[in-house]
Specification:
The protein is an alpha/beta fold and 246 residues long. The protein has one domain: Lambda Exonuclease, Chain A, CATH 3.90.320. Helix content is 46%, strand content 13%. It is built from twelve helices and eight strands. A five-stranded mixed β-sheet has the order 2-5-6-7-8. A hairpin with a 6-residue loop joins strand 3 and strand 4.
Length: 246
């Protein structure tokens, strides 16, 4: 915890030093001891009876694979940011890893910063490579589920991207995010405002409990590297026992 607190004190310097993100050694090392916004949706939507083992393993010991979809997303990100900058007629500034000043075990790496109070998050999907953004959203279930069924200009609050963005906004203390779905043929954008109540009631308590009860024990004294089962908190074990078997 002392290391995390020191990181929080130097958050501006750490953010500056990690602007290359996945190409930065510091970015990679900091993320090994933190819970970051790309995983917030998975954690916050876990049921009381859901084992934490798979999630802890995927966060702390991710497989060293580089899929075609992952490579496509990285390769297209700069092009997508340039296009978004043209559409908005505003500069998008690079950024690194932001560490929450109050809760230094939480972090976020937005795709860029916009003006003084905004940020951007862009998704480039390989499956939408030959479609327009609107066409992809209407025909591809994975993209369609991102948006509200009744209003395609609003993000679905149950989707992991909404949790990711709310985490980014609260950790960076910025007011809004321009979320974009990019394809080589077009781009769809929506504005997402910071929702303090959503963060306070539906995110922060679950993130904090997961970090201290599930992640931190494995960080401090890893059982996985000793080929032993990852620890499960008592309340999850009890919840699974009390769950009626079908």
């Amino acid at each position: 915890m002392e290391e995390l607190s020191e990181n929080a004190k130097d958050w501006r310097e750490n953010e500056r030093k990690t602007r290359e993100q996945c190409d930065s050694e510091l970015w990679l090392s900091l993320r090994k001891i933190m819970l970051t916004s790309s995983n917030f949706g998975v954690v916050c939507r876990m049921r009381p009876t859901t084992s934490c083992v798979t999630t802890v393993k995927s966060i702390l010991f991710p497989p060293s694979i580089d899929t075609a979809a992952m490579k496509y997303g990285r390769d297209m990100e700069e092009m997508a940011k340039q296009k978004l900058s043209e559409i908005l007629k505003k500069d998008i500034k690079p950024c690194g890893l932001f560490i929450d000043s109050n809760y230094p075990w939480l972090g976020a790496s937005p795709d860029g910063l916009l003006e003084e109070n905004g940020l951007v998050e862009i998704k480039c999907s390989l499956s939408a490579e030959n479609l327009t953004a609107e066409g992809a959203i209407h025909t591809l279930p994975r993209l369609k589920s991102i948006f509200n069924k009744k209003d395609p200009n609003v993000l679905n609050q149950n989707h992991r991207f909404f949790y990711q963005i709310q985490g980014q906004l609260n950790i960076t203390q910025r007011d809004f995010c321009i979320f974009a779905v990019w394809t080589p043929r077009s781009m769809k954008t929506v504005r997402v405002n910071r929702d303090n109540d959503f963060w306070r009631n539906k995110m922060w308590p679950f993130l904090t409990r997961f970090y201290f009860d599930c992640m931190l024990p494995e960080i401090l004294d890893s059982r996985y590297v000793r080929h032993m089962p990852i620890r499960e908190p008592k309340y999850i074990i009890e919840a699974k026992k009390s769950c009626p078997k079908v």
